[in-house]
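Re: the request from the purification team.
They wanted to know what the chain is likely to look like in 3D before they choose a buffer screen. I agreed to run a prediction and write the result into the notebook, where they can find it.
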Amino acid sequence: MAEQGVCAGGAGRPGGTLRAYRALLGAQARSQTAYRASFLLDLLGNLGATVFDVVTVLVIYGVTRELGGFTLRETLVMVGLSASAFAVADLLVGNIERLPAHVRTGLFDAVLLRPLGALPQLLLMNLPLRKVSRGVFGVAVLVVALGSAGIDWTPARVALAVVAPLAGVVFFGSLFVATATVAFWWVDSGELANAVTYGGRDFTSYPVTVFEGWFRAAFAYGLGFAFVSYQPALALLGRADPLGLPSWAGWTAPVVALVAAVVAAAAWRTGIRHYRSTGS
């Protein structure tokens, strides 16, 4: 008990908290890389989903020269923005989707008892380091797409090319957290959350002009997915929006990401207050 008290007291201080988080991360890294051959196979295997997204777009353009009014090179900019943002967010935040299982089994009770933040603990528990390969591949696709799109580079566009993917990471990360908090009210909410997060990834891989009606309005602008890849790509390419939004809309990705983060934080705090122990 004395040892637990020392640990709790140490974790209560900022330096102790950071050391505790580093220890959790280090333990995950050591456990997942203990068998190097298996870990390397996992790295290669996890490339599949992101590679498939790119290959799908290439196959579509094998039978058409334009998609929703955009060429292959223009669409690949959107694919690169989407793939890089989602892959990094999935690496850093994606395992929050295990929250329904933690609530069901009572593991979340143990998380709340520790003198550390509940959300950072959940993110560091079983951190999927094997997904690093997806992030690297997504960034590589973005770099190649930007280099081949014939963009008229200005300092502002260089800054946007850096900031937009980071805003996308924040947006998707916020989406992971916000949808996971539904588990505090509805434990079997995993499929609903996946429909929004992974469905959003697929949505942002294409120009929003290929979608129509209420579906486009709801996903592109109601939920903000248009500001992950479509609108930033328009600003980078110097193209007017066929849907009529002003040219400055492409530069608002960081603002949309910030709004998403605020909503996700509010949903998380509300969910924590609503949570009742399983008693197990």
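For the purification team: Residues 103 and 257 are 28 Å apart (CA to CA).
Please add any questions underneath this entry.
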